């Protein structure tokens, strides 16, 4: 059976593209890393890495083995952490992946309060909008918005529901008047958001006659950053439909005013995902509980 150090050496060399760099990550000599990878190849009976004097590259077998090897190491580390800390106070590193805007606007401001309560937990926060592989990327918790399509081997805990709200600045409404129906937005300056990952301009969603309808409006400004769309709305550039967590502070301070509240679409669920294990780390439990307590601050009405 391959040793964990041989597998770790292979992963490190594969990810860095060189024995010297891979060895440095593990505090090994290049010679020791090379021997560890060679032992792994001999144990498996296949060649995993093409070696040259300047670089290394993976064989097709090496590429297939890499993903499984990363999951194996992540599982081994997680199991060790679970066994060591399930009977103790939360301590150690917790890696959390979250949508970028939500993470910057909601999670980051809340971390100070979390650390005051749990000072021994070190948070590593990944802020981007891609769907991470919890096992392969060694992520403890992934927070995702919307419907879930991949829940195999995962535990999903719904932490809060966010509401899309239609907002503009008080000055904008005073100048242009507030709409009474979604169709009235065709006469307004609509601030559109372009999703960087898909390249598409996001549609606007409303509930009309008991059904959810999606609409597209022309606008003078299209931005590929959600927070910047919110800033543009607060500055009076136009009307925006944005998540409640993005609008909440502006609404509370009187810089944004909601319109068409009776046409709000159904809320968007935010879910915390973590690996389905028999033992759940206290770090995961306390962080999810903390989100449940903090989420009331992210609603326009509280």
Detailed description of the structure:
The chain contains nine helices and 14 strands. The chain has 302 residues and is of the alpha/beta class. The strands form five sheets. The chain has a five-stranded mixed β-sheet, covered by helices on one side. The protein has a three-stranded antiparallel β-sheet with strand order 12-7-13. The chain has a two-stranded antiparallel ribbon with strand order 1-2. It is elongated and about 75 Å long.
CATH topology value of the largest domain: D-Maltodextrin-Binding Protein, domain 2
Could you tell me how far the N terminus lies from the C terminus, measured between alpha carbons in angstroms? Answer: 57 Å
Rg to the nearest angstrom? 24 Å
- In CATH, what is the class of the largest domain? Alpha Beta
Mean pLDDT: 86
Structural class: alpha/beta
Order the strands across the largest sheet as they lie in space.
4-3-5-14-6
Helix content: 25-40%
Low-confidence stretches: none
Biggest pleated-sheet summary: 5 strands, mixed
User: Any idea what the shape is?
Assistant: elongated
CATH evolutionary superfamily of the largest domain: Periplasmic binding protein-like II
Overall domain count? 3
Element-by-element helix/strand order: HHHEEHEHEEEEHEEEEHEHEEH
Entry summary:
The chain is α/β, with parallel strands linked by helices. The protein has 9 helices and 14 strands.
What are the salient characteristics of this protein?
302 residues; alpha/beta; Arc Repressor Mutant, subunit A; D-Maltodextrin-Binding Protein, domain 2; 3 domains; five-stranded mixed β-sheet; three-stranded antiparallel β-sheet; 9 helices; 14 strands; elongated
């Amino acid at each position: 059976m391959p040793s964990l150090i041989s597998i770790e050496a292979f992963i490190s060399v594969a990810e860095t593209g060189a024995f010297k760099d891979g060895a440095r990550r593990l505090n090994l000599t290049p010679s020791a890393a090379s021997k560890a990878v060679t032992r792994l190849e001999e144990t498996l009976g296949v060649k995993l890495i093409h070696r040259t004097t300047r670089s290394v590259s993976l064989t097709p077998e090496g590429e297939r083995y890499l993903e499984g090897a990363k999951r194996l190491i992540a599982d081994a580390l997680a199991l060790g952490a679970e066994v060591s800390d399930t009977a103790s106070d939360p301590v150690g590193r917790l890696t959390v992946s979250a949508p970028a805007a939500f993470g910057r606007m909601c999670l980051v401001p809340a971390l100070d309060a979390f650390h005051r309560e749990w000072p021994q937990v070190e948070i590593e926060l990944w802020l981007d909008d891609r769907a991470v592989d919890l096992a392969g990327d060694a992520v403890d918790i992934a927070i995702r918005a919307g419907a879930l399509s991949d829940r195999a081997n995962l535990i999903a805990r719904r932490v809060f529901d966010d509401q899309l709200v239609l907002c503009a600045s008080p000055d904008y409404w005073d100048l242009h008047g507030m709409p009474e129906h979604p169709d009235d937005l065709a006469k307004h300056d609509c601030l559109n958001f372009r999703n960087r990952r898909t390249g598409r301009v996001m549609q606007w969603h409303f509930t009309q006659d008991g059904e959810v309808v999606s609409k597209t409006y022309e606008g003078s400004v299209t931005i590929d950053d959600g927070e910047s769309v919110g800033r543009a709305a607060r500055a009076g550039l136009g009307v925006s439909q944005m998540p409640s967590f993005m609008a909440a502070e502006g609404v509370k301070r009187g810089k944004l005013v909601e319109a068409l509240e009776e046409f709000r679409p159904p809320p968007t669920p935010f879910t915390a995902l973590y690996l389905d294990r028999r033992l759940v780390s206290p770090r995961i439990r306390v962080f999810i509980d903390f989100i449940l307590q903090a989420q009331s601050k992210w609603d326009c009405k509280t």
